[in-house]
Amino acid sequence: LPEPTSAPVPEPKLTPERKQETADPYAAKDERVRLGAYRIVGLSHEVTVLEGQTFYSICRAHLGPDMQCYVEAYNNLPRNPQIKVGQVLKIPKLELKKRR
Length: 100
Description:
Layout: H1 16-23, H2 26-29, H3 31-35, E1 38-48, H4 55-62, H5 68-74, E2 88-96
Antiparallel strand pairs: 1-2
């Protein structure tokens, strides 16, 4: 019997969009992250929710206004999440995307 030959498997071609998704998996989770000026590169720090804090007040204090989409994507939270006292939120480390 002839030995089976293994043909090389072609590598999938990466379009610019596919390269970006591979580099930033959070971009696929939320359109606002994909279209935003920053990309998530890791964990900056963690925050424990205290009495009287809201999700938006925490995001604004640690990342700035209108940056909650990055925290939502990084923590696998839905839009407009309900948080509880004692819950731990991971604050992502962000990097400015390179201009094309």
